[in-house]
Give the backbone structure.
Amino acid sequence: MTTDKRFLVALAALALVACVTGRSTLRGGLPEERVAKYPPNVQEAYRLFAARCSRCHTLSRPLNAQIDDFSHWVAYVERMRHHAGSGISKADGEKILVFLKHYLEEENPSQRTAPDSAGGASGSEAAP
Amino acid sequence: MKKLLPLLLVTLLPATASAYEIERNFAGSAQLDYLAVPTSVNGRNFTFDGFTTELAVKLAVDFTENFSANVKICYGCHGFETDMAYVDMRVADQLNFRVGRMNPAFGDFLLRHDPANHRANSKPLPYDMGRMLRRNEWNMSIVPAPYVDNGLEVNGTQWFGDDAQLDYAGYVVSGFKGNNDAFDFDFVQSRSGSLYYVDNNSEPAVGGRAALTLNFTDYVNGTFGLSGMYGHYDPAADLEYLILGADVYLRFDALVIRGEYLFRKTEFAVGSNPDERFRYEFDPKKNFFTKDGFYIEAEYPITDYLEVFGRLDGMRRKGNVLASSALRSTSAILRETLGVNIVVQRGLRIKLSGEYWDFSDFANEVAIHTGVTANF
């Protein structure tokens, strides 16, 4: 078998594994069981975060970032949005911030928004 | 340019600067990799086998919403190097000025050349640097990554709705370097402090990139890009080079496929005695060689803790060679790579990969990489 054919077979096998296992966007991010406990809109936001933000780097970069102020995330998503090929539209940016707000509050309970305030952890309008 | 910079600073520093809290972000990565070539008794004769370490720390500071600075210092085979030291001045999404020492926009891989940002232990062949097998015989790759240079880049991004993003970049930089009697680039001159980090021929090189990103759904998207670079690399500015590239990135949920093709045409000095200088009879119309290469790779996370990847890449060189060269007038490399990333914990990975090198001019080799990568 030629090199080209061997590679195509390997690529087809990888695609088959992808179809069979049907794993959603993992890429070194949060464990699936943790994401499954999130509210539906945050789960959806996480999947978009995983899809867009793993374009150039692993998800551990943002997930391990020592950010404890939501306004920093707002500035950072805006910065990343400008990167060539980021694929992060304004609407995507707002959705990604829904997850990041939830994640920030989860990791730093002191940042938790009061239950009656607008744009809480699972609020879909958390983004600027 | 010296006159332009203060003008830009005055123009871009907004009145709201004092009200804007300065954002600082510190990030870094480290990779320790062991390269073994079990098919050869002494791999050191044609590659850097054994341990290599790559470290990088980056500080990004946003002074205002549209004025920021980035500095990235790397430690690798050359010791400490400045990978980035530039300021960004953004007038609008569509118009950003980048000034300083940077990675000029070329291709897709340069965005993620940091070892923590790609799954393989090694770089794709068209971008490989010192760790490719037979690096001296091939004088490395087409554009060894990271390509770092001093200059000015204008870039921007334009969205069409939420599904289409058009990016562009154009730049003037010092360009690649070599001697007046050069046969190819001398990459050491681009990083040698003893020669100063300055232009060698009073003439900037120019380049640019355009890319279109399409979001088909939230989890299916792709980028299609074209890049080019042109300049002279010798002090007399007689020897020209032209580099062209095309790249594609496709994501189908968790499956990512990337591919690039690069082409470089490089003129060489003929010298006073071409019959002695070259191995093959010199044709005055062919005072150049071409080098082209490609890679296609796929990566997929099987579980939360295990990712697999495969890559096929190759490189080809056509044209006359020096009399002492081990290459022929047409030489090629084809490499197959399979590997896994084991995510020990978030930010810490074990990278394992095996490579089969198929050389046209040398014995084929197997290379095995074992690495640990951390990012913070």
Chain A touches chain B through 51 residues (CB under 8 Å). The CA atoms of residues 56 and 86 of chain A lie 8 Å apart. Helices of chain A lie at 3-21, 32-36, 40-53, 60-64, 70-81, 90-107. Chain A has a mean pLDDT of 77.
